[in-house]
């Protein structure tokens, strides 16, 4: 799996030294998989060692230089991850980091593009990927487990939106983007999402009037035992798609 070169020898030298130190978790130290997980390494204690932040960076750099093909692509992903910064990371930075990052970032982008194309996925900005039943189930479970928004979060959101009025240009763009596009029926995931996010949120005093104005002039249509209401200006597009005027047939009690 590894190429036999000077970088391989240097890598094992770093590992042997770290194992002999028998370091434990401490500030400034980072846990490292001797055989990377993406290359088949396990989480067993025998495959783990603690390195300084600097050593950790160098080891991942060496892993790129001592692999090729798919393994090299994976090691470049790991090296890019060494740039992540957070409360639990004390990343090493040096004068060569920017040069190293630029070199492998280009190769990383090319590899990532090939992988995504091989999966035949539709980009998110062109409709997204097809959602499976398993995906829907995961979304539903996540929504049910998500805690309702706190009063502080709701108040902060309202404050950020206070006084905002969309420009006429924005309204026109939104109108043109949606014109002729068939809407609904709303998915169960969307219904659940709205239910969870709106739980405990009090309706404004003018809610009833707002709803009445919103549905004013709506026309009932139905198709395949599904009913919805649409505005007159988009009615024809629905009729052309097989929808019929009037609500769906109700079963008599």
Write the layout of secondary structure elements.
Elements: H1 6-21, E1 29-33, E2 48-52, H2 53-65, H3 69-81, H4 97-118, H5 133-145, H6 151-161, H7 168-178, H8 188-198, H9 207-215, E3 219-223, E4 226-230, H10 232-240, E5 244-245
Antiparallel strand pairs: 1-2, 3-4, 3-5
Helix pairs in contact: 1-2, 2-3, 3-4, 5-8
How do you describe this structure in short?
The chain is mainly alpha-helical and 253 residues long.
Care to describe what's here?
There is one protein chain. The protein has 253 residues and is mainly α. Among the domains are: 113 residues, no CATH class; 32 residues, no CATH class. It has 10 helices and 5 strands, in the order H-E-E-H-H-H-H-H-H-H-H-E-E-H-E. Helix 1 packs antiparallel against helix 2.
Task: Sum up the structure in keywords.
single chain, 253 residues, mainly alpha, elongated
Average pLDDT, all residues: 80
Measured on Cα atoms, how large is the radius of gyration?
Answer: 28 Å
The proportion of strand residues reads 5-15%
| Biggest sheet: strand arrangement | 4-3-5
The separation of the N and C termini measures: 71 Å
* Number of DSSP E strands: 5
Count, helices: 10
Which parts are unreliable, with pLDDT below 50 for 5 consecutive residues or more?
Answer: none
Largest sheet: 3 strands, antiparallel
């Amino acid at each position: 799996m590894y190429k036999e070169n000077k970088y391989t020898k240097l890598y094992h030298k770093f590992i042997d030294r770290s194992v002999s130190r028998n370091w434990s978790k401490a500030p400034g130290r980072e846990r490292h998989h001797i055989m990377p997980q993406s290359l088949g390494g396990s989480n067993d204690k025998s495959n783990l060692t603690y390195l300084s932040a600097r050593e950790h960076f160098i080891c991942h750099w060496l892993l790129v230089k001592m692999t090729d093909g798919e393994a090299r692509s994976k090691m470049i992903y790991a090296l890019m991850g060494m740039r992540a910064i957070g409360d639990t990371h004390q990343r090493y930075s040096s004068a060569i980091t920017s040069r190293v990052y630029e070199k492998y970032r280009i190769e990383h982008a090319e590899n990532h593009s090939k992988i995504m194309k091989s999966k035949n996925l539709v980009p998110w900005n062109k409709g997204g990927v097809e959602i499976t039943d398993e995906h829907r189930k995961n979304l539903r479970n996540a929504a049910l487990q998500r805690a309702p928004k706190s009063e502080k979060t709701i108040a902060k959101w309202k404050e950020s939106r206070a006084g905002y009025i969309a420009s006429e240009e924005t309204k026109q763009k939104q109108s043109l983007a949606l014109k002729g596009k068939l809407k609904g029926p709303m998915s169960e995931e969307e219904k659940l999402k709205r239910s969870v996010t709106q739980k405990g949120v009090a309706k404004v005093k003018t809610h009833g009037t707002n709803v009445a104005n919103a549905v004013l002039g709506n026309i009932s249509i139905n198709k395949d035992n599904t009913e919805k209401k649409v505005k007159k200006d988009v009615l024809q597009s629905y009729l052309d798609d097989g929808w019929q005027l009037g609500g769906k047939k109700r079963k008599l009690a």
